[in-house]
Amino acid sequence: METKLFLILISFIFTLQSCEAQQNLNSSSAKMTKQDVIKAINQNDTIAVVNAIQRGFDINTIDDEGRSLLLLATIEGNYEMAKLLVIQGANVNQQANNKDSAFLYSGATGQTKLVELFLANGARFDIFNRYYGTALIPACERGHIETVKLLANTKDFPIDHINRLGWTGLMEAVILGDGSLKYQQIVQILKDADANMHIPDHDGITPLQHAEQRVFKEIVAIIKS
């Protein structure tokens, strides 16, 4: 009898401790500030972020630079965190003070898996970066082959968009690239996706002429073929 009472008492104590721990967790989560949530994003703490969202924290909250939680997760390269935020309704097109959005940034940094996620969740093609460029143009400049391939072959993507410098993705691959294999592949991808090979810059110089000036023989051959 005494043993039975003892076990009941122990069970009761554990139950009280469990309830107290849960109350502390709830209280802590309820008090999470914007900075707490941003810290959780940067540390890839999905549990803390889920708790904050469940308690009504605004999914599209921004930091002092206008960067959304989703953009911060994208900057950190945290795919699972970004996916969580997107599922919860984060805006993939929300722009920071410098015009970056999660979609534009993922393209510029060659995070193809994130680009694919954002394309499937409302990425817009009429929102541009601070150079009035698309997600494709900096991907071409930086040699992100898989990202270029994905975007260039996405239906209705503006493959021939011209930024305020007067350059298309093709032009940036030629002018800002080094003519190496990855840039040759990018030019070929753009050509195969029916990009216009002849759009000139503000000075009237075509991609072919720029490639010839830089003695990028392989790229010249691709453009001419």
Automatic annotation (TrEMBL):
SUPFAM superfamilies: Ankyrin repeat (SSF48403)
Protein origin, superkingdom: Bacteria
ANK repeat feature ranges: 65-97
Pfam families: Ank, Ank_2
InterPro entries listed in its UniProt record: Ankyrin_rpt (IPR002110), Ankyrin_rpt-contain_sf (IPR036770)
Presence of keyword Transmembrane helix: no
Sorted UniProt keywords: ANK repeat, Repeat
Record protein name field: Ankyrin repeat domain-containing protein
